[in-house]
Amino acid sequence: MYPTNAFVIRQSTEDDAPALHRLAELDSTRPLVGPALIGEIGGLPAAAVSLNDGRVIADPFQATAVLRQLLRMRFGALQAYSRTPSLTERLRATLSPVLAARRESAQPARS
Hints:
Elements: E1 8-11, H1 17-26, E2 36-41, E3 44-50, E4 56-58, H2 65-83, H3 87-106
């Protein structure tokens, strides 16, 4: 079991570019491009996930297995949230056939 404050997960900023390049170098992979989530251990970036494609990079010299899983779960949650229609859109989709039927029945009959 890990304490709740064992990791910090945050959105990357422009200032994180050198840290992301360092992580990619340590992981022997290409750097992440675009927005990313960074997982920190002890205040230092230890892993990151791309918000574009879900690719994960991590420091192989730190115990990052759990942190990588958390980053993947957070990425999946953000993807699911972005695909879920808003409440307004869901209500509109559900009620539009009912409202259309009421409009048609309320119109006077034409001869």
